[in-house]
Amino acid sequence: MRPSCLSVFSNDKKLFTQQVKYEPSCVSIHPGQIEIAVGDSQEQNVYIYNLEGDTLKESDKLSCKGAITQVAYSPDGANLGVGDAGRYVHVFNTTDRKVVHQGWSFHTARVNCLAWSPDSRHMASGSLDTNIIIWSMENPNKRIVIKGAHKMSQITSLAWLNDNTVVSTGQDSCIKQWTLTLH
């Protein structure tokens, strides 16, 4: 495998580059700390780093069920969502790194994207299977499934406009807005 690197930039200036022994696939920055989560596209790991001066110091490694396709910190910083190629969505507590929800598996194909609601109570996942799933942090057995959200087209990106409205894009070149009734 060819060596891979992580680079840190500030104001269009490269601060440093660091080699890693895995292939980075995605990244998310903690909203309240100098902590960075990086997914591994070949293995089933998420690497947690702290930015210390001019280097990234690895502080933890989280294991999942498939190659990592997406990582996303919740807006309140309490949780880290992880999507994988094995169709699973995982949630880890950022304080103790314990699993909050292990392997939500209602997608039928690779998870492409994740997005947290502004209040951090819900997370949306989009998949190669054309579906969007809204997960509840308060009631993990409760979910809203938007089947065929982009018919015959994988979901490529998600964003929340407010606590009840999700916007999705698909490979069909469409942008769709979904108003949800969340209890």
Automatic annotation (TrEMBL):
| Keyword check for Repeat | yes
Protein keywords? Repeat, WD repeat
Q: Which SMART domains match?
A: WD40 (SM00320)
Repeat (WD) residue spans along the chain: 104-145
The keyword Repeat appears for this protein: yes
Q: Name one Pfam family in it.
A: WD40
Kindly give the InterPro entries that the UniProt entry links to this protein. WD40/YVTN_repeat-like_dom_sf, WD40_repeat_dom_sf, WD40_rpt
**UniProt xrefs under PANTHER family:** WD REPEAT-CONTAINING PROTEIN 1, WD-REPEATCONTAINING PROTEIN WDR1
Protein name as annotated: Actin-interacting protein 1-like
Organism source for this protein?
Answer: Saccoglossus kowalevskii (Acorn worm)
**UniProt lineage:** Eukaryota, Metazoa, Hemichordata, Enteropneusta, Harrimaniidae
Gene name tied to this protein: LOC102805976
